[in-house]
Each structure stands twice: as structure tokens, then as C-alpha cells.
Design goal:
InterPro entries: FAD/NAD-bd_sf, Ferredox_Rdtase, Ferredox_Rdtase_adrenod. The chain is of the alpha/beta class. Helices cover 33% and strands 19% of the residues.
């Protein structure tokens, strides 16, 4: 998503003399889509968007790539006369939840994204990255400048077979990213990327478009294990176009002369990251071979691996391991309802459970799934529910609260500098200028202080 982005955000109603005001925490796709719908549906609504980074939208934290028309829509929203973007405001640190609650009438809640842990020994070794950190590194997120991945190994292994895993694999083999990451990748010795899944081709998590991009990657060839595809053709008769492509994939070698290769490895779960001679750096991974329980897309590897493991283990040499097994939201305020099992804020159609005036959309509402259109629809739904509640009198918008004015005063006394949209445009222009000199659309700035200086 990631919504990247922080697809996690919340909104809260606020009254003002001119009409309801809404505070949105999180300046990613979910936040912008919610704002867009609110501004459209309530001609008197005023919306303030608070974002931890000094930048917006172009920095998808989940790796979601935003197409130009999506970016244009967000830009129009940010420039709307009733909308303000306040970047560089870390809710929970620069401004507390209570302060926002006082200013905005209700308690806003902000979640941030974390990594799903693999829960296996060796996870902390050097050379093991979460996809979130790796994507953050090549996307130029200031918080992921370090550690830089060491790309001196020949084989890299990505755990998980979702769209993020494919993005990561593609970047390792062919790339269009920050100069910093480009330089590291230019010197990369990675020639082979294995994308490992716990289930089979029928259950693969990535979508066709992303798979096609992988297949069409220049100068690479696919390297599959025919055994992984045994019995699939029969199982597929009359079904599932997505998986049929894998049959095709299995029989198509893309470019036999290509120096680099990638391949899916199915029916394998991580058991342990194996350290090299120094005991500090990852040198391989131990995988358990799974059998599936059940059939079709819902077949399960976990239960089978636990209750009836095949007992077969396989060690793979690889110096870089990226765990791309999904994102999860993390609560930043224990006072806000949070379901740690599902890593979502318990809600009913975006209304946060037992917390009047607090709403959520994006991954914190439904979990870390879906493409950008899913996030758009989901955010529009939350905005509609919020407006319905205002109009039905369920959300009190009669009291007069200071809103952004109070927050601005607070952060000024604390020396926290906000980056407004017009200032972000300066950062954007500088990034584009730097990009032009390198023959790229943009060269992202990695240092927050530098961004603030330019803003
Ligand atoms: P995802 O689609 O949920 O894929 C997660 C992968 O991790 C699956 O292959 C899953 O296997 C595997 N996995 C989960 N737990 C595991 C474990 N304990 N051990 C081994 N493997 C495990 O997540 P994602 O790739 O992070 O993507 C998140 C969402 O963003 C998705 O909806 C995706 O489509 C979207 N996205 C879209 C784009 C795009 O539109 N271009 C780009 C990036 C992301 P099982 O299926 O067997 O559980």
C-alpha cells in the first residue's frame, strides 16, 4: 500500500461557524480519497489533513504505484479552497491525540504500518529485510535511508507472492528509483530472485497485471520448478484464468540467454534464517515443504504444515532475504479500539466501535489488502457514512472548536514546522529538477531537514 501511503487514517467531525470541519490523519490515498468525497458532498465542510512526512501522495509506503490521474486528483483535493494539508506533523508525538480531540471535538486516531513478523529464528540477522523497509529504502523514505541492503550476493529470496513481493523482485532485477538506491542496485551482484510462497500456483496472491510485468521484465528469464505445477492443469479445467497463466508461464522461457533469472517456488514455508560463518549475516534460509489441505484458492498450507508436515526441509543459499508477507497496522494510542489479531480498528462501515465521532478507512479499516481502486471505494464509503451521521444528528457538529488554528498555535510553541501544500510544491519542484538532470521523472530527497530547508 499500502497504501503504502499511510492507508491508515481517521477522520473526525468538528463544528465551525461556517460548517462541519473534518480532521484527517494520514496524507495517503485513503486520506485524500476521503477528503475528496467529503468536500464534494458537503459544500460547507472544511478538511484538514495531517501527515507525518513533509510530502504527500508520491511516496506510497506500501509500494503502490500511483498513476498520473490519481496524483492529479489528489493535487486538486490538496489545492481545494476548503482543504489544508499539514505535512511534517507526527500525530502522537508533535501533537497528541488529546490535543486533536480538544481541537476537533472528537478523538482522532492514527495508526501506522508495521511489519508482519515471520516469527522464525534468524529474523534479526543482517541481510534480512521486511518488504516495508526495503520498499521504503528504494522509494526514498527518509526513515528507511539506513540500513542499505548489501547486494553483493548472487541470489536474493523474497518470501511471499503478493504484488509487493513482485514489486521487490522486479526492482532487484531492473529498476527506476532513487539515485541512492540506483547506485546500490547498479553495483548489485544479484542475478537470481526466488519468490517463495507457502501455497501453490492456484493460491498465488499477486494479480495478473503485476505478474505480466514480471514476465515481461527485460533481460530476465523465468526459472520454475515443473514439480510445483504437477496436477494443476487437471485442477484448472474450466476455472481460474489467473492460474492458467501460470501453466503458460511454466512452459514459457522468456529469454534463455538472459543473464538474470527469477522464479516462483511454491509449497514452501520459512523455518529459519541461516547465518553465515560470522554468525551475524544471513547466508541462507531453511524452508519446509508443505502439502496443502483443502482445494482451490482457499486451500491451506499452515494447518497442514503444523499437523502433518512432510518432514522435508530444503536449504537455499541466499545473501538477501526480504520478507513480503503482508503489512499490518499498529495502534499508537491504547485508548483507541484496536483488534491485534486482525490488526484493524474494529469498525462498522468505517464508524469506529464505541468511539463516537471517529471514523476510519483504508487498511486500518479492512486490513492490508486491495489495489488503489479498493482504497478509493472504501474511502468514499467512509466519507458517505460520516456525512450521513452528520445529517442524522448522530455526530454533533454544533459546538465551536478551534480546529487547525489551535494545532498551529501548539506546534509553533513546540518549534514544529508544518509543511503546507504550497511548500510541498517547492519540494516537488526541486525533486523534479534533480530528476531531470539525471534523466528521470524525479529524484526524491531523502533528508527531512533538507526538505524543510527547501520548503
Ligand atoms: P498479500 O497480497 O496479502 O500477499 C502476502 C503474501 O505473503 C502471500 O503470498 C501470502 O501467502 C504470504 N504469506 C503470508 N503469511 C505468510 C507466512 N507466515 N509465511 C509465508 N508466507 C506468508 O500482501 P502484499 O503483497 O503485501 O500486498 C498488500 C496489498 O497491496 C494487496 O492487496 C496487493 O494487491 C496490494 N498491492 C497492489 C499493488 C498494485 O496494485 N500494483 C502493488 C503493491 C501492493 P498466502 O496467500 O499463502 O497466505
Amino acid at each position: 500500500m499500502k497504501l503504502h501511503f499511510s492507508v491508515t487514517h481517521s477522520v473526525c467531525g468538528l463544528s465551525s461557524p461556517s460548517g462541519p470541519r473534518v480532521c484527517i490523519v494520514g496524507g495517503g490515498p485513503a486520506g485524500f480519497y476521503t477528503a475528496q468525497q467529503l468536500l464534494k458532498a458537503r459544500r460547507d465542510a472544511v478538511v484538514d489533513i495531517y501527515e507525518r512526512l513533509p510530502v504527500i501522495i508520491l511516496r506510497s509506503r506500501s509500494g503502490l504505484r500511483l498513476v498520473t490521474n490519481v496524483i492529479n486528483t489528489f493535487t486538486q483535493t490538496a489545492q481545494h479552497e476548503r482543504c489544508s494539508f499539514h505535512g511534517n506533523v507526527n500525530v502522537g508525538k508533535d501533537v497528541t491525540i488529546d490535543e486533536l480531540q480538544q481541537a476537533y471535538h472528537t478523538k482522532p486516531q492514527h495508526n501506522t504500518e508495521g511489519n508482519r513478523s515471520m516469527g522464525i529464528p534468524g529474523e534479526d540477522l543482517a541481510g534480512v529485510f521486511s518488504a516495508k523497509d526495503f520498499v521504503g529504502w528504494y522509494n526514498g523514505l527518509p526513515s528507511n535511508k539506513e540500513p542499505r541492503p548489501d547486494l553483493s550476493c548472487e541470489t536474493a529470496l523474497v518470501l511471499g507472492q503478493g504484488n509487493v513481493a513482485l514489486d521487490v523482485a522486479r526492482i532487484l532485477l531492473d529498476t527506476d528509483i532513487t539515485q541512492n538506491a540506483l547506485e546500490a542496485l547498479a553495483g548489485s551482484k544479484v542475478r537470481r530472485v526466488l519468490i517463495v510462497g507457502q501455497r501453490g500456483p492456484l493460491q498465488i496472491a499477486c494479480t495478473i497485471k503485476e505478474l505480466r510485468e514480471m514476465v515481461n521484465l527485460p533481460n530476465t528469464r523465468a526459472d520454475m520448478l515443473p514439480a510445483d505445477f504437477e496436477g494443476i492443469a487437471e485442477a484448472l479445467k474450466g476455472k481460474n484464468i489467473k492460474s492458467k497463466r501460470f501453466i503458460h508461464l511454466n512452459t514459457t522461457l522468456i529469454d534463455e540467454k538472459a543473464e538474470k533469472c527469477w522464479g516462483f517456488r511454491f509449497f514452501r514455508s520459512p523455518v529459519e534464517i541461516l547465518a553465515g560463518a560470522d554468525g551475524k549475516r544471513a547466508a541462507g534460509i531453511r524452508l519446509a515443504l508443505n502439502k496443502l489441505e483443502g482445494s482451490g484458492e482457499s486451500a491451506c498450507a499452515c494447518a497442514c504444515a503444523c499437523s502433518d508436515p512432510t518432514g522435508q526441509l530444503e536449504d537455499v543459499d541466499c545473501g538477501l532475504i526480504i520478507s513480503s508477507i503482508g503489512y499490518k497496522s499498529i495502534p499508537i494510542d491504547p485508548a483507541v479500539p484496536f483488534d491485534p489479531q486482525k490488526a484493524i480498528v474494529p469498525n462498522e462501515m468505517g464508524r469506529v466501535q464505541d468511539t463516537a465521532g471517529l471514523y476510519c478507512s483504508g487498511w486500518v479499516k479492512r486490513g492490508p489488502t486491495g489495489v488503489i481502486a479498493t482504497t478509493m471505494n472504501d474511502s468514499f464509503d467512509t466519507a458517505c457514512v460520516l456525512i450521513q451521521d452528520m445529517e442524522a444528528g448522530k455526530l454533533d457538529v454544533s459546538a465551536n472548536k478551534p480546529g487547525a488554528q489551535a494545532i498551529t498555535a501548539l506546534r509553533q510553541t513546540r518549534g514544529v514546522r508544518t509543511v503546507l501544500f504550497s511548500q510541498w510544491e517547492k519540494i516537488n519542484a526541486e525533486e523534479e529538477k534533480r530528476g531531470r538532470s539525471l534523466g528521470k521523472p524525479r529524484e526524491k530527497l531523502l533528508d527531512v531537514n533538507q526538505m524543510l530547508k527547501i520548503a
